[in-house]
Amino acid sequence: MRKTADGFKKMDGERRIKVLKLEVDYELATLYEAMLENNEAKKNECKRKLERLRQELIRLSSK
């Protein structure tokens, strides 16, 4: 039973990593737009989101 539960946790983690990578791509595109618009508030918000996503990716990758 424990092996099955661990297998599900691993699959969930792998799926979450894939979703996080998509979210990073989206935020990078949004950051690029903010840079073109010279919108400092939008750039800072994107950077905060990217940092949060980076930390989550590191946490999930180290398991």
UniProtKB/TrEMBL annotation:
Keyword annotations of the record: Coiled coil
From the UniProt record, list the coiled-coil ranges. Answer: 32-63
Q: Does the keyword Coiled coil apply?
A: yes
Superkingdom of the organism of origin: Bacteria
Q: What is this protein called?
A: YkzI
Organism in which the protein naturally occurs? Anoxybacillus flavithermus
